[in-house]
DNA sequence: AATAAGGTTTCATTATTTGGAACAATCCGA
DNA sequence: TCGGATTGTTCCAAATAATGAAACCTTATT
């Protein structure tokens, strides 16, 4: 037996440590100084220093000599291109998102699960043109977004338990579910219902309906949501969009399964 | 003295090897089997196997159990979001690209240099909406694209020499420059001229004019190009767009320098 | 000029990676 | 159904690379 499952705990080997450092740099969202990183990482000075050097050499980080700061490197952009095309639903789902966007005229998100968090891989704005990398690649919490709850609800039991454990419950709004028990009950309800709602749990005034994208075998591939504001629409109004949403989710699932690379 | 410069040769340490494997997987552009990778990498079986396991554990690769294939993982997409925002000119350049696109009505590329290759970080199509990750993150050759030549021309002498060495000259068309000497002469001319042209060197019927984006100190930050086809326009026609192009390049450079992160 | 803070290098110790070879599982043609 | 490939996985002693405390530079600060 082997563990092919996703790394819940920490680091295997040097590579793991290096990648943790990558995350640390990326998480900051701005160029970081050595000392800042040192404060957060629990590696000794010399170790962290060498990891940073290696990553910089490899183009995974860039180092600004003038300001003495590290930032994520362009090699990532190149690699991500491949990842987005191959491992995300986005390229397959694109035409379906376009159609749904046209039909409902609201903001649409396509998301997948990554390390207990929601990773947005594509988006359509209510009207405006789409926003490149600045939107795709964004992450969000699992426990208080429509897509997050939709995906977690349909995870196999043990994966679901792991995912719940990874949540860092924080009360973004008065309606946020702030503990594992409440979340579990909600997920049961979602599983029964087939879709999930975000009832202003992440942001005041923002609501959404979301559906999981499930493979024929029931595996969670991702989730799809329609988002709006309480000023434009209501939860009941979103409920009316449910058929369009679930149909699109089904179509994406089918397309993904049938297209699995020619060869 | 230290080597902070980019890795021209190969691997430092385990991390380097792991990242090489990442490249190998990403380069294929489709899910890969263990044996395929084994054939190309010069690592022994067991070593490659463990590297793949580590990367999979880390979410840098995904493993499809059914098909026994590896593909780039979603963790990359998350990291790339940060990279694109912080290390690329794209977020800063966006409004300028929009304006230029509006003005000239042709395809526009924003590129940066990565390991001797051209990395496209943003794009505007002649008319259609833009194309997310499917366009950003793409790579192209340095020696036969307008942006590639524009950037190489303005590199410091030793970096330029390195970059030229990394080119894998291939005659895409009869007009492609196919050796280092021809390329060097061309780069001299470009440096004198201030802009570069792609005279159907990469693809028959496709021409472009490109300008480097240079910092106040003369460092190459990227390049900007306007692309068209010989059916729509001519090299002389592109020459007329030169002022718009170089002005935009200058504006982007200024914006990039003045905005260098508040803090 | 002295002190502090941030960053870089050294080197003996320690832990991880290595890879040949044995092992298991799966596929294929007869 | 049976060999014989082919492909993927595990072992373990030897080789190698990572470690981190401390010393050492190098800029800022007073």
UniProtKB/TrEMBL annotation, chains A, B:
Coiled coil: none annotated. GO terms for biological process: negative regulation of DNA-templated transcription. Signal peptide: none annotated. SMART domains: HTH_ICLR. PROSITE patterns: HTH_ICLR, ICLR_ED. Residues 75-258 form the IclR-ED domain. The keyword Transcription regulation applies. It comes from the Bacteria. Keywords: DNA-binding, Transcription, Transcription regulation. GO terms for molecular function: DNA binding; DNA-binding transcription factor activity. Residues 12-74 form the HTH iclR-type domain. InterPro entries: GAF-like_dom_sf, HTH_MetabolicPath_Reg, Tscrpt_reg_IclR_C, Tscrpt_reg_IclR_N, WH-like_DNA-bd_sf, WH_DNA-bd_sf. This is IclR family transcriptional regulator. It comes from Salibaculum griseiflavum.
């Amino acid at each position: 037996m082997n563990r092919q499952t996703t790394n819940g705990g920490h680091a295997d080997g040097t590579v793991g440590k290096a990648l943790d450092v990558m995350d640390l740099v990326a998480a900051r969202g701005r160029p970081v100084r050595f000392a800042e990183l040192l404060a957060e990482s629990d590696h000794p000075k010399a170790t962290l220093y060498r990891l940073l050097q290696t990553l910089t050499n490899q183009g995974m980080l860039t180092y600004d000599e003038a300001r003495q700061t590290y930032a994520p490197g362009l090699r990532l952009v190149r690699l991500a291109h491949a990842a987005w095309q191959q491992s995300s639903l986005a390229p397959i789902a694109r035409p379906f998102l376009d159609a749904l966007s046209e039909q409902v005229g609201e903001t649409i998100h396509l998301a997948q699960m990554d390390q207990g968090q929601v990773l947005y891989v594509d988006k359509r704005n209510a009207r405006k043109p789409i926003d490149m990398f600045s939107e795709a690649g964004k992450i969000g919490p699992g426990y208080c977004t429509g897509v997050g709850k939709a995906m977690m609800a349909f995870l196999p039991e043990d994966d679901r338990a792991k995912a719940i454990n990874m949540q860092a419950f924080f009360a973004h709004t008065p309606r946020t579910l702030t503990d594992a028990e409440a979340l579990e009950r909600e997920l049961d309800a979602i599983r029964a219902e087939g879709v999930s709602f975000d009832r202003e749990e992440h942001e005041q005034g923002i609501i959404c309906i979301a559906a999981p994208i499930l493979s024929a075998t029931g595996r969670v591939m991702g989730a799809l949501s329609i988002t709006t504001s309480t000023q434009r629409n209501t939860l009941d109004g979103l409920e009316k969009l449910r058929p369009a949403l679930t149909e699109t989710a089904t179509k994406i699932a089918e397309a993904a399964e049938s297209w699995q690379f020619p060869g």
